[in-house]
Please model this.
Amino acid sequence: MEKFIVDGPAKLIGHVMIAGAKNVALKALVASLLTDEDIIIKNVPHIRDVHLMLEVLGHLGKHAALTGSTVTITKNSSHTCTVPLEVGARLRTSSMVLGPLLSRYGKAIIPNPGGCRIGARPIDRHIDGLKAMGASISYTSDDGYFHAEAKELHGAEITFEKNTHTGTETILLAAILAKGTTTLHNAAEEVEVDNLIDLLQHMGAHIKRTGKREIVIEGVSSLHSAEFEIMPDRNEEVTFAVAAIASTGDITVHNSRRQYLGAFLEALTKAGGGYEAIDAESTRYFYKEALTAVDVTTEIYPGFMTDWQAPWALLMTQAKGESVVHETVFENRFTYVEELKKMGARITYFDPDIKNPEEFYNFNWNDRPVDTHQAIRITGPTNLHNAVLSINDLRAGATLLLATIIGSGKSYLYGIEQVDRGYEHIEKRLCALGAHIDRVTEDAIS
Ligand code: EPU
Model:
């Protein structure tokens, strides 16, 4: 087991290159299952989830070679339709192989998906969509697998009751080789979905966004080889922006996609954080003045993303006044709060008065455990101090790592494999900006 030992405080200054988007890379790898021809994907981040997905592809009969940040995926002589429990249960997006396997081989057996511990995270919306396309899918709790079969997937009119990012992508991946036309209503608009569509079009798929939250897919009989570069990770950009300002530092981010960060930049400007466009793909984030409290409510695209609320809450511990973070997408994304409180943060939970929570929230209201809350109040500014912390999910992990960098004294962070799931060489990049972080294996210090 590894942990981080962090010596704070540090002011982060310098330049950083944003890596490829995790939430595109994983789906791009799944897309390679739609053809036997070679797929070359560039700008793939070196993160744990990508390595797990490469393992999944290997089990399904693909050969994937990662050289630098380029993955070349070729076909093996044979294939299987089963994702082993051991790898699949650790990677939520492994369930997305359902579409390609059903449309190409008529069969898929996948474990109940794992991933970040940020709520129940069911895949009922994905399953309902695939059933509408002719798949029969059953879940057996005695083996923990979904068993799916389809003689032939056919086009369908599918309306998602609520937004689902990977649900939209799962149905896209299923509909491309299905017979006929599929129309997705209330489809997700996240830019990562569009980047995946772009790759699929390069492979020969017929997909169009035909209206607000509507996608039409005309099934084709086969796809072909493609070479594609995935977009930079906008969640990583937000992480480094917060790192700069919370540490009273100054970081220029390269491979910036600030055009997709509108809601974040608006809140940042209101709070008094500095940012400046250097050129089309570089943005400087810097401490400009004492921060003031600003409330945020997470929303689907183009709103303030749920992935940004944890770093935002950290930033607000440094702002004067009381701010509110209201989480509406997931029912349990405040696992970092108790940890920040150990460092001296002043945060309390509450539940905003929402008239129709069943409709208002993006998660299924019935999945919500009774003892969770959807909002927090942060009172700042606070001088954070050292602590021993544990990480429960990816964005919480990056946030707690930043907290220990700006806090005073020596902190110990456990559960860092969660951070490795989504951030490439995170401690090396933060150390290059002035942080003091050691990655230590438990055995080495006993
Ligand atoms: N939901 C259901 N049933 C479904 C699908 C979703 O109840 O069948 C619920 C979820 O539990 C959640 C809400 O609906 O409460 C929204 O879920 P969505 O499907 O939109 O999220 P996701 O596809 O599971 C992706 C990203 C997340 C990101 C969200 C929101 C990937 C691999 N994951 O999750 O990224 O926060 O969309 O944009 O693309 C991360 O990178 O750390 C991460 C969690």
User: Anything to note?
Assistant: The two ends are 12 Å apart (CA to CA). The pocket of EPU is lined by residues 22-23, 26, 93, 116, 119-126, 163-167, 190, 235, 305-307, 329-330, 362-364, 394-395, 422 (CB under 6 Å). Residues 349 and 376 are 4 Å apart (CA to CA). The domain at 22-229 is CATH 3.65.10.10 (UDP-n-acetylglucosamine1-carboxyvinyl-transferase; Chain).
